[in-house]
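Let's practice the habit of predicting before peeking. Look at the sequence and jot down your guess about where helices and strands might fall. Then scroll down.
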Amino acid sequence: MNILFLNEYAHPFVAGGAEESTMQLARVLVARGHAVSILTPNYGAAPVEMIDGVRIERYAFPKRGNKERKTIGGWWHTSLFWWCYSSLRTVMAVRRLAPDLIHIHGKFSIPAGVIAGRMFGVPTLFTARDYRALCNYGRCISEHPTSRRCTFREYWRWEFPAYVRAYTDGGAKAWFVNALYALRGRAWARVLYAALKRVDVVVCVSRAVARIYEANGIWQTQPIYNIQQPLSEPARPMSDAEAPEALYIGKLSPGKGAGLLPEVIGQTLKGHPTLVWTIYTNGGVLERTVRAALDAHLYAGRVRILPYVPHEELMARIAGAAVVCIPSVWQEPLTRLALEALQSGTPVVITDRGGSREIVEDMVTGRLVPADALSIAEAVLDVVNNGAHYRERIREKRESLTNTFCVQPIADHERLYERLARRVLFQTLGVILPPGGSLTVLDRHGQKSRYLTYLTRYAQAFDRVLVFTFADETEARLPANVKLVPPCARSKRLYTFLLPFAHRRALRACGVLRVMQMDGCIPAVLAHWLYGVPFAATFGYKYAEFALLKNRQAFSKIMRWIEALGVRTATTIIFTTEELRAYLLKRFGPRIEQKLLLIPNGVDTRQFSEGRDRDPHTLLFVGRLEEQKNLFALLEAVAQLPERAALRLVWIGRGNLEGALRQRARELGVSLEIIPRVDNAALPPYYQKAGVFTLVSLIEGMPKALIEAMSAGCPCVVSDCDGNRVLVEDGVTGYVTGTDAPSIATGLARALGDAEFRSRVGSAARAKVVAQYDLRQLLEKEIKQLLVAKKAVIGYDMTSVSHMEHPIKKALITGIGGQDGFYMAELLLEKGYEVHGIIRHATSTGTDRMEQLRAELPHGSSSLLHLHYADLSDSGSIGMLLERIKPDELYNFAAHSQVRVSFDIPEYTCDITGLGAVRVFEAVRQSGLPTRVYQAGSSEMFGKARVTPQTEETPFYPRSPYAYAKALAHFAAVNYRESYGMFICNGILYNHESPRRGEMFVTRKITKTLARIAAGEDLALSLGNLDAERDWGYAPDYVEAVWRMLQQDAPDDYLLATGVAHRIRDFVEAAGRALHFDIRWEGHGAEERGSDAGTGRVLVRVDPKFFRPVEPEKLTGDSSKARAKLSWEPRTSFDDLVRMMVEADVARLKNSL
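Done guessing? Here is the structure:
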């Protein structure tokens, strides 16, 4: 890749650490095969110079550098001459060098880089190492509570005077000269800020810097740490002091905390009788003040103030010190000194400002303290007195520090460069919370954890998620790429209308907006009208009718208007029930039907798991204490029950009726406990212990609390209203009553009177929720639609995309008609890929599956799916496809995958499964394309494994033609990778199933046959070895990991498994449980039978013809490598997998009738 760096200075003219960091990054990139040029003004050196492979090109400049400082005054870089001249020379250089991207390292080079990038369609990025691109002084960033730029009034009334008082003698001349600088600096800062907004990506040297830039309206941030030169070994300690030594290194300036030094030093010298201090500095405005304050200690020899020494000597001094003190009062971006100290094994005391927390771990590698002298002094003494402890902990953390600050930044830079150079689009989702909503408000109602679940999944699917909240707040549990956008007005109603204007930059950055409830759609509607941003909104209930229920006629009319506005403008309308769909079509007509998408409310079924040991006398309710919930009628109903004295009502929620409800319960003699707030994450135990859940509302959309109760297997008594009716089938998954007290009492009596029936109803409710309302599956469906609806945005400026020729990546999938190929195509289409699949002339299965996939795709994405006829036995057809498609990625799933049949046709199996892979590798090699290749392996290759569990290093011992054909493909992939430098990853996948598994596989055979038996067909399931053990996982989980393999920096082999083995009979029993069969086994060997304990009917028989000639040993995988390197975890349990497959086969049978 050809990369152009821009900076105002470059070797030998070094203004500070930025130039060192720039050169270090350039050296690393050159060592990794990239071409790097640094364009900089010439202050008196050779026009062109090569240093360690880095080409430094210096253009003529009228000013020569200072021989001592090797810099020029800032006046030059804030002049109109500099802006015009640097832009001209940069444009000329970009035209001549034709770089793939422009990386700006100096803030004064931002305008030139942006202009050149726009002229030639080259992506630009800027590394923010401080805050001077936001404000030329930057004191406002450190001292303002929200770290925002100062206003014009604040600049002249506070910022400028504070600077003059702190950094000058305060004389009239100083005020006059600095006023001129301030005027010029303010004007230039506005130019820089305007140019900064047009940079595609702002690389921030820490997450703290990124947060500050985002707080000032720069949303296109990407935190990547500065590359730190790794130390091959700690520097050899060197110190002139015989006693413990504390170091301060840096300018003696107010921002560096030099004003605190005298008191810190005084306190520590009193507290430690032999401690000495050494200050290495090149001066500063506070040097005289510090020297005067420390005069007595300087005389006594316990404090030394020395000039800077060469870097190698300084590192040795650091290694020999007891502590390095960094008492900064400004927001430290990412101090290199702290990193160098820790790499040398020396603990650090640093103020908790800016990015300090990202380097130093308090009480482990040093101390993080407030910016006050007493706290700093106490921390220094603690580190000096416990130095051995801190040094030992630093040694333990050294490898982690090296990886975080020396290795990972290189990979992060390369990944970002590749993405920008290939014009891979950035995906940003904007989330608009309900009106007046914020995480604080949600937490008050116990719903924050639910929303965090949504935001976490959004963060996995999108590069960034911007959450527009109605309160100025922070949340530590949010993923790093989720940003909270604070309000700009105190009035929430006013902010609803101001939001699209106040945050226009952030909204234009969004590819799509997600409106959590339709009543909060006004900002999204305005953003759609003003900036063309599409949005998807949830129509969760009939908002106007709900307002009428509260006797708010005027508000009901407003809500009808908002409903109409949102429905007519939204790109996608997510409705939760068929009743809402009918309401929308009746009111707005069939023209909106193509916008409608059914996604019911869901719950995390693993979190809300089935409960045991229920208290039959506890009646639970979760929700708002308002008229809509019909709670007075519920109290009246409970009072009518004969066993009311033994019953206990537990209600979780708050509302305006709380006092009246408590009073009425006392009058009726009903035991009522109201718990105002329980966080959603803490609710499962309440559902799991309750005897009955009650929800007798007058109106409901699709109540989440009811779904949670059903997921926990709690018997539910509900009223016959729209949302409840969809979820609960009377007598099957719950009890449905009227809304008057006698009807409710009758329903409660039914539920309380039969414990066995309650248990059966609760289990059926749980099964329904797992099959239809599992939050993970519903979120995947929603994200698929959001990804399709998004705009094309590179960086965060829509004007940048006009020149993009290849906005999406291409993938070629062999075996696209199989289970894995099918899921991979679905995943890649969700991610915006153009997908090409290979199918054979000899079968229609692939075509049928692709038609099924097209039918399931969101509107608009099926045009990205293309099918081609080819065969792995014909290398010519593969080569022609590669030449035509030029894929970025190739996934080779094609194989003859029936292990039992492979014994009958071993030659054909090897030709397609083994040699077919070799033909693919050879075709990629001959094409010369940089295509990344995935080769699908199998746990069958381990066969007679000598070790359990198996890893990537376990030797293969294949025991079937299918297995040794896969082993051939595996070793061919390794050979091509090592011989030709190709990017080929082997995936050793253990058994992975899904509802899309082919019917010839044993797992699908089990679920389909038992479903047919449950439907009334007279047949039995015939199987082979019931005790064969396999490690079963869920196919979509594994396909996600396969995709991640090809996104790594280097190719490797990965094993994917759950680590838990189950027998065939375990799979049969789990499928039986899902269909309410209790399977009991009788007999042995070929005579073994499985019968339903309830009816005595034989369900399963053993047939010797299904035995393999040779059976593999116990196959269980250890996927630690994949979990660590790919950040992957199998998310679906064995029982959930089996239940999912059974439910799918039951649904297919119903649809076929």
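How did you do? Confidence is low (pLDDT under 50) at residues 792-807.
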